[in-house]
Amino acid sequence: xxxxxxxxxxxGTKILSALIDRxxxxxxxxxxxxxxxxxxxxxIVKKMVESTQELLGDNKALLSxxxxxxxxxxxxxxxxxxxxxxxxxxxxYNLNIRQILNEYFNIPVFIGNDVEVAALGEQKFGAGKGCDxxxxxxxxxxxxxxxxxxxxxxxxxxGTAGEIGHIIVDLNGRQCACGAHGCLEAYASRSAxxxxxxxxxxxxxxxxxxxxxxxxxxxxxxxxxxxxxxxxELVIQCVTEASEYLSGGLASIINFINPKLIILGGGLIExxxxxYQKTIKKARAKSLPVPAAKIQFxxxxxxxxxxxxxxxxxxxxxx
Length: 319
Hints:
Elements: E1 4-10, E2 14-21, E3 27-34, H1 41-56, E4 66-73, E5 76-78, E6 83-87, E7 92-96, H2 97-105, E8 109-113, H3 114-125, E9 133-139, E10 143-149, E11 152-154, H4 185-188, H5 190-202, H6 221-229, H7 233-256, E12 261-265, H8 267-271, H9 273-286, H10 289-294, E13 296-299, H11 306-312
Parallel strand pairs: 1-4, 4-8, 9-12, 12-13
Antiparallel strand pairs: 1-2, 2-3, 5-6, 6-7, 9-10, 10-11
C-alpha cells in the first residue's frame, strides 16, 4: 500500500492542501492559499495545482508514493464524475476537478463536499471516532453539514443530503449566496455576522472591532472573538442573533434525524467559544425533551485539518 495521500480543502476563503500519512492520519506538510478575492474556476484551479506542486517540492520520487488526491469542496458535488457542480461562494460551476488534477499529476482524484470530508476526518481520527451515528455541522463562510448513519455517510437521492445551511428559516428573509431567500446560512454563518456588523458600522454604531479591522480587509472569526472578550455590545448582539438561528437549525436536526452526537466545527466555532456554548444550550432548549436529554455535542478535534485529513481518505469510499 502506498504511504501517502494528498488532501485538499477548498473553502470559501482558503485552499488548504496537505500531505497525509495514510496509516496515522498525521499531517506531514501543508500549504495554505487565500481564495476570498481570487475566485472563479481559473484562479481556483491554478491555486490547487500550485499548492500541490509546493507539497511535492523537488522530490519527484514522492509522487510514486502518493495513493490519491482527495478534494473537499464548498458546494454541491457530483462525486462519481469528480465535478464541482455549484459553489456560489467560489463562483465555480461545473468544474471538472478530477479531470484537471489527474491531467497534471496522473494520480487518482476523488472529490466530496467539504463538510462530508470533515466528517470523514473526524470519524477516523477525531471527535466522531467510535461513534457510528452523528451529524457534523461546520460554521464558517457558510453553514454545511454531513450525516453519518450506521458508520456510513448519507448522500441522499441526488447526493445533496446534509445541506442544513439551506433550510429556510425565514420565508421572506435575506438573500443567500445560493440565490434563495431566508436560508440558515444567511443568518448563522461568519459571513452573515460580518455583514450585520458592517451594516451597523456604516450606520454609525460604535464597536471595538474597528481596533482590529484594516481597510479593505474582512472581519475574521478571531476579530469577533477578541471583541466578544471585550464585551463589545454590537458584536455580542450579532453573534447572539446568529446563535439563535443556528440553535434552531440544530434543534431541527435533533428532532428530525435524532442522532447520538452533533459535532460542531469550522472557524467560527473554533474561535468564538461564546457562540458555541450559547448555541448548544439553546439547541437543547428548543428540541423535544426526549432527544434533547440524550443528544451529545462535541467540538471537532482536528480543527483546520479535519477537511484535508478526511479528503485524503475519500478513495476508501470507492468512487
